[in-house]
């Protein structure tokens, strides 16, 4: 506070002597007992020299911690001039100093009914409310004082501290409620905190997370986006936006959010998310027959060709292109991928130049394709070559079995697994889910080993 507001308000010795000769002089306080109290100045024209002298004597007694002497002086001033509200403010400060908080609050309120903009009473009322642990009301009163006198820097600092303390209490309440799954209570606490600090990206994000748990996806998305508006570097909110949009199949929007987050804080996780989004976006443009493969109870040769052609396109480019003739795939939805796997020698046409894209796939057929892909990659990758010569024990297949070489590579590489009892089940039909999983394992093998 400005020094003149907190001064002891000394008056000339002649004034004191003239008005107060009958009473002993108050002691001079070297260190004021209540330095945060604001001297109750008398506005021009409200009182005379005697009023000024009595208020000043009362204040001196108060700062010397002589509460009885201070109360007598302020009371005498009011008895002489009942309209002298600064003296009533002085009496209120005496009550505050004596911890008679209800009495102090009533006296300050009485002053403010007469003079609503009287800053010493506003400050005293705020201090009283603070002592009563009514922080929110104290903030309102201090803000009223600041509206009258914006130069009260110490009061502004107190307001800032109280706001922060109130926010911390609300945030702690909200977090406790969230942990206990009391989501409505948590949201209400965050809303109150946000009302006090509307430009907090953190609070918007926390509210969005609560909304997500409540199933209010639209509200959550609005909150996350507001958080990013307030803090463009809020990668946590950007990732949440990406996840929400990804769940809604807005793949372009999700990709944009992830890319923005990655531009701020690159990470392996974001790179993986972007790769998945790019693949899903491409899959969304693929034929419905391809998208239906994972749910198929049994896939056909054309389905497997499409899975390999799409998921392992880079691997197929490693194979020397061969001239092949296929006579029965024109117009088939997977014709281009059938041609690619046939040229790479991964799934070959039959001797009569037919591919028979509708023929069912067995575990033997799948192992043959897996073995050829691993062999293809191992040509340039020595670390994969031990898989080609491994001879795992397969209970239902001897080493002389026609499918054993392919099955051994598939099993040794970890791309295909054995069933109970170490059985390969060579003739078992392959479901779409199994085929998709095997192709993804192949892709992981070729990527992670590079």
Structure description:
The chain has 450 residues and is mainly α. The protein folds into three domains: 3-151, Tetratricopeptide repeat domain (Serine Threonine Protein Phosphatase 5, Tetratricopeptide repeat); 163-284, Alpha Horseshoe (Serine Threonine Protein Phosphatase 5, Tetratricopeptide repeat); 291-448, no CATH class. It contains 23 helices and no strands. The longest helix has 27 residues, at 153-179. Residues 1-22 have low confidence and may be disordered.
Question: What is the topological layout?
Answer:
Elements: H1 3-6, H2 13-20, H3 49-63, H4 67-80, H5 85-97, H6 101-114, H7 119-131, H8 135-148, H9 153-179, H10 183-196, H11 201-214, H12 217-230, H13 235-247, H14 251-264, H15 268-284, H16 288-291, H17 301-311, H18 313-316, H19 335-344, H20 363-378, H21 386-389, H22 404-412, H23 432-448
Descriptive key words:
450 residues; mainly alpha; Serine Threonine Protein Phosphatase 5, Tetratricopeptide repeat; 3 domains; 63% helix; disordered N terminus
Order of helices and strands: HHHHHHHHHHHHHHHHHHHHHHH
Beta-strand fraction estimate: under 5%
Helix content: 55-70%
What ranges have pLDDT less than 50 throughout 5 or more consecutive residues?
A: 1-22
Could you tell me how far the N terminus lies from the C terminus, measured between alpha carbons in angstroms?
69 Å
Structural class category: mainly alpha
Largest sheet: none
Number of domains: 3
Shape: rod-shaped
- Global Rg: 41 Å
